[in-house]
Amino acid sequence: MAKIELINDPTYTFGSADNLRHYGLELDLADGYRPSSVHGVIINDNPVVIVGASGGATGIHGNSLLELADRAYVAVGPYVVCFTPSPFQYHWALEVDSATCFGIYFHERTGALLSHGELEIARFSPSGEIIWSESGADIFSEAFILYDDFVEATDFNGDVYRFKYGDGHQFAQPNDALRRG
Q: Could you tell me if residue 175 is inside a domain?
């Protein structure tokens, strides 16, 4: 199995020969803007791919990289990027949120790949298509929990949303009964 390391590389300049580290593939998803997030993927100690994106900046934490079967998924800016680590093969980049993707999750029982975004919670397929995407009254900056039958996301106001894995429909609308105290 390949050893994958995800690093923050904010000083990297796309298209420049003067970078400290050189990657085999550059993915500049910033659409002509200066990237607010730049993450490097190092596989078996070799810099393989650098990804930059505009939108909300993303840090690197436990849910920034998801390894599943023979694929890896990386959250950078508002995107999820998918690749096979060994041998390396880039598959796709999918915009899963209008602002930023906080993390990527997998619910084993349902086979659901999920993104916890700032503005949207989305389920996406292994082939890089949005299955469903739902938003709330405010940003999803609080808890994100996978339960047996639904994913629970809490927004900035403390409103709790429970989305069904299959279709994204809510079990209950956010209200005072679901507000976290």
A: no
Tell me 15's DSSP state.
Answer: T
Q: How many domains does the chain have?
A: 1
Helix (H) or strand (E) holding 121: strand 120-124
Whether 172 is in a domain gets the answer no
- Peptide bond just before 126 cis, omega within 30 deg: no
- pLDDT tens sequence for the chain (181 residues): 789 999 999 999 999 999 999 999 999 999 888 999 999 999 999 999 999 999 889 999 999 999 999 999 999 999 999 999 999 999 999 999 999 999 999 999 999 999 999 999 999 999 999 999 999 999 999 999 999 999 999 999 999 999 999 999 997 654 544 444 4
